[in-house]
C-alpha cells in the first residue's frame, strides 16, 4: 500500500491528558497521516463532548480513516458509531475499560459515569471491522467482560496476555504490536468479519 492509498489514522485517547511516553503518542509520532483527538479543556467527563470532539476530527478529513483507540477512547468510538454518518474503514480498540462495574479508588464512580453518559455500554454490532485487544490483568476490566463486549460488537478479539492497562504505568511505552494489528484491520476492512479469539 502506498502512502497516497493509506488511510489517515485518528488516535482516540481515553480520559488522560497528553502523555509523551504513551504508546498512542509514540505511534502517532511515527505516522505521516495522523490526527489525535485533542483532550477536553472543559466538561472532561462528558461522553457527549468527547463523542462530538471525535466527530469533529473525523469530519475535518475526506480521506479514509482508521480509528486507533485506547481505554475510554474505545467507548467513545463505540458510542460515536451508534449514530455516525461519516464512514470509517476500521477501528482498533485497545484495552477497553468496563464502566458498568465499580472501578478502583481514584477513578470515576459508577454514578459519575452514568451521569455523564458512559453507561450502559452499547451492545450493538459495529458497522465497520474492529479488533479488540484485551489484557488478562487489566485493572479496569476483566478479560471475560471485554470478550463479551467484543462478541456483541462483532469484533476480532486479540488476547494480549498480561499487559495491565497497556499504558506507561504497565510498561507501555512503545507497543510495536499496534502496527501489525492495524495492518490486519486494513486487510479485513472489505467486509465485517465475525468474532474470533486470537492469542498474540
The tally of helices reads 6
Amount of helix: 25-40%
The share of residues in extended strands comes to 15-25%
Class of secondary structure makeup:
alpha/beta
Q: Tell me the span between the first and last alpha carbons.
A: 24 Å
Shape: globular
Low-confidence stretches: 192-200
The count of β-strands is 7
Q: How is the main sheet built?
A: 7 strands, parallel
What's the short story on this structure?
It contains six helices and seven strands, in the order E-H-E-H-E-H-E-H-E-H-E-H-E. With 200 residues, the protein is an alpha/beta fold.
Fold and architecture overview:
- This protein has 200 residues and is of the alpha/beta class.
- 30% of the residues lie in helices and 16% in strands.
- The protein contains six helices and seven strands, in the order βαβαβαβαβαβαβ.
- Strands 2-1-3-4-5-6-7 form a seven-stranded parallel beta sheet, sandwiched between helices.
- α5 links the parallel β5 and β6 (156-159).
- α2 packs across α3.
- The longest helix has 13 residues, at 47-59.
- The radius of gyration is 15 Å and the shape is globular.
- Mean pLDDT is 91; it is low at 192-200.
Amino acid at each position: 500500500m502506498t502512502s497516497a492509498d493509506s488511510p489517515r489514522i485518528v488516535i482516540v485517547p481515553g480520559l488522560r491528558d497528553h502523555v509523551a511516553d504513551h504508546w498512542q503518542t509514540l505511534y502517532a509520532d511515527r505516522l505521516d497521516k495522523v490526527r489525535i483527538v485533542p483532550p477536553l479543556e472543559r466538561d472532561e467527563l462528558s461522553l457527549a463532548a468527547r463523542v462530538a470532539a471525535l466527530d469533529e476530527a473525523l469530519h475535518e478529513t475526506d480521506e479514509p480513516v482508521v480509528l486507533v483507540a485506547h481505554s475510554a477512547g474505545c467507548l467513545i468510538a463505540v458510542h460515536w458509531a451508534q449514530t455516525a454518518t461519516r464512514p470509517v474503514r476500521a477501528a482498533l480498540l485497545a484495552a477497553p475499560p468496563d464502566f458498568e462495574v465499580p472501578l478502583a479508588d481514584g477513578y470515576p464512580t459508577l454514578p459519575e459515569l452514568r451521569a455523564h453518559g458512559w453507561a450502559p455500554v452499547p451492545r450493538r454490532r459495529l458497522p465497520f471491522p474492529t479488533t479488540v485487544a484485551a489484557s488478562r490483568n487489566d485493572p479496569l476490566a476483566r478479560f471475560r467482560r471485554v470478550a463479551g463486549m467484543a462478541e456483541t460488537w462483532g469484533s476480532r478479539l486479540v488476547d494480549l496476555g498480561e499487559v495491565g492497562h497497556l499504558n506507561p504505568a504497565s510498561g507501555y511505552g512503545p507497543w510495536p504490536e499496534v502496527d501489525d494489528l492495524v495492518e490486519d484491520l486494513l486487510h479485513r476492512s472489505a467486509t465485517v468479519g465475525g468474532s474470533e479469539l486470537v492469542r498474540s
